[in-house]
Amino acid sequence: MKHRILKALTLGLTSLTGAWLLFGVHHLAGGAEPDRSKLLTLECRGSVKPHRELTLRLRPNERVLAVHVTAGEVVKAGDPLAEIFDGEAWMRLQDLKRTRLDSLLSRSELRSKVDRLDHVEAELKTQLNLWKEVEPASAERRVLLLRDKRDELQEQVALLRLRVADSTNLVYANGSVAASVDEQINKLEAQLASPVIVAPFNGRVAFLGSDPTRSTAGETVLEFWDTNIVVRAEVLQHQLPLVSKGCRAEVSLDFSDSKPVAAIVDAVEMRAETQPGETYPTYGVRLALDSTADRLRPGMRVSVRIHSEGRTVPPAS
Prior knowledge:
By secondary structure, the protein is an alpha+beta fold. It has helices at about 1-30, 85-135, 135-170, 180-195, and strands at about 40-50, 55, 60-65, 75, 80-85, 170, 180, 195-200, 205-210, 220-225, 230-235, 250-255, 260-275, 280-290, 300-310. The chain has a six-stranded antiparallel beta barrel.
C-alpha cells in the first residue's frame, strides 16, 4: 500500500515539475513581454531665454545720435529704439560721389578726344587725296605724322572708354549684383537720411548702456529681448538619442514649491557646448512652454524633466 502511495506522489511531482518548466520556458520565450510603454524621464538643468533677441553693438565709424527708450521699457514692433550714424556708409558715399565726378570728367575728356580723333581722321583723308593728286612729297610726310597722331588718339580713346565703364558700373561686395554709381549713391543717401533703428518685434529693453551717446566701436548700446520666452535645457551626449522634437517636458524653478510648467521639445541642437563650471559637453534642447509662465524670467536657472516614451537609456561612454 505504501509503495503505491509513494509511486503516486512521485508521478504527481514529476507532472508538476514538467508543467512548471513548460510554463517557464513559454514565459521566457515571450509569452509575457515586459511593459515598454512607461515613460523614461531625463532630469537635467536649463535656463530661461528670450525667444528672440537683438543686440545693438557699434561697428567701427559708427556713433549713437540718440536713444528713444529706457532700461526695462516694453516696446512694440516698429517703435524707434535709437539713432545710429553710420560713418562707414558716409565715407562710402563720399567715395562714390568722387567716382561719379571722375566719371563725368572722364566722359567730357572722352568726348573731346573722340572729336579730336574725328578731326584727325578727316584731315588724314584730305592729305591722302593731296598726296595722290597735287603734292605727293609734302603730303606723304604729313600723312605719316597724322597716322601716328591717330594711333595715339585711338589708344587714349580706348583707355578713356574703359575708365568710364569702370566708374559707371561698380559691383557690390558680394560680387553678384552690379549697380550704377547713381543707384548706390541714392541707396546710401536714403540710408543716412533715416538713421533710426526700430524694434523688429514686441519686446523689452533688457540692457541700456549708462551713456550710449559716448559708446565706442565694439561696445553694446542696448539689448532688446522678445517678451516670449523659451527654455534651453542642457542634455548630456549619452542622453541625446532619447530626446526628439515633440517630447513632453516639465520646467520647475529651483527652490520653489510652485507647480511645474508644462513644455514641449521644440528643437534639438546638434552642436555640443561646455557650460562654465561644467566638465562634460552638453547639447542644447529648446523647450516651448505650453502656457504663460509669469514667474519665469530670462536668465533664471531651472530644473527640467523630459519624458521619452518606449526607449532605454544607452550606457554612458
